[in-house]
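Run Tetratricopeptide repeat protein through structure prediction, thanks.
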Amino acid sequence: MNKIVVVFILLLGLTSASPVQAQMVEVAPGVSVSRKVYPVPANEAPFFNFAVKSDRMKAADDEFVSNMLKVMPDRAAAARRAINAGWSALIGPGDTTTAVKRFNQAYLLDPRESGIYQGFAAVVADRFKDYDFADELFRVAARMNAPSTALSADHGRVMLMAGRPHDAKPLLEKAIRDDPDWAGPRSNLAWATFLMGQVEEACRLVKEVRGRNMDSVTGDLELLKQKAHC
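Sure, done. The structure for Tetratricopeptide repeat protein is below.
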């Protein structure tokens, strides 16, 4: 085969193997995220699935915002109210559909609120298993207004779900500093440490798990002690 043709084929192969960069979309002043679209109705995905809205849809959004601000004129406060409603749907019954609708409503009210991106990240991880986009959204949340003390704990939990204990560990360590009296991040830190191959350290950390919601991690701790032979 002609050498030039061989080189061309190799270069073509290298080109086709290159990762495709996701399109970036500005979602708040100076803040852009990857344009991730999911096979669900627009209001059941973050940022309304990046759908191009018709004039009718825009009018409906404006009417919603106007009605909300009549009740609660402070946009940030109104957004946080919607965020809280989203978390109530997500944490209690695990209703990701309702949760993301509330987070989208909050986004319409004030796209600068951290809780919107944290909520979107949790939905993306739990419903769509898109851990890379969830990671991106958590990192955006850390830069936005009024981040929750639970942000690092949620981020670390999702990194564990993604099989990325090395990424989870520093986040969970921060989560413990942010909220020392919460058993969840302490339990997850012990797991991350174990999954990194640090068995003795994981057993030590198991003994330090304490705080509220201890009953929710008891089963996880017993399993970890069995696997690590603590």
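The first strand starts at residue 24 and ends at 28.
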